[in-house]
Amino acid sequence: MAENFSLTGNTREEQYVSLLPQIQVLIGDETHLIAILSNTAAALKQQFGFFWVGFYLVENEQLVLGPFQGSVACMRIAKGKGVCGTAWKDATSQMVPDVDAFPGHIACSNASKSEVVIPIFKGDNVVAVLDVDSDKYNDFSQTDLIFLEKLCKWLSSYF
Q1: Could you tell me the domains of the chain?
Q2: Per-residue confidence in pLDDT tens, the chain, 159 aa
Q3: What strands lie across the sheet with 52-59, from one edge to the other?
């Protein structure tokens, strides 16, 4: 079944306000995690045109590449390494306006210029991260952080 979003708004905030409920409707009563994460990544990429949107799942003390939209990506990331590994280790969201200035940044693609990573929790444990990259410097704001954290909190119920 093809899904079409009817999105409104000129600002990112207005677009998130329009998009997030539609993602919830799209997911509906689906329970398969990979299907849920796949369509969530696709919806975010489709709406905002980000360079890369995807999930890394915690597995055997590593982040392992999960569903994503964009160019090929790093398949495994160690805890504490790069922006994703730091978000996992510190259990906090990371917003990086210039990835080249981030100590230990892992360059899966040289086209990535800024990044936001949101941990997804099951209880007190990080079970995954949402990673969003832009090919523009300083492309993310508190608006992105707030709405992506809301999305990840909602997604946590599927883990």
Answers
A1: 12-158 (3.30.450.40)
A2: 446 666 677 899 999 999 999 999 999 999 999 999 999 999 999 999 999 999 999 999 999 999 999 999 999 999 999 999 999 999 999 999 999 999 878 877 788 999 999 999 999 999 999 999 999 999 999 999 999 999 999 999 999
A3: 76-78, 62-69, 52-59, 125-134, 114-122, 94-96
With a CB cutoff of 8 Å and minimum separation 6, the contacts of 1 are none
Token pair belonging to 67:
């569903």
Instruction: Tell me the whole-structure pTM to 2 decimals.
Output: 0.95
Distance CA 113, CA 60 (A): 29
For residue 59, the surrounding DSSP H or E stretch is strand 52-59
The H or E element containing residue 142 is: helix 142-155
Separation CA 63–CA 135 (nearest Å)? 23
What SS3 class is residue 48?
helix
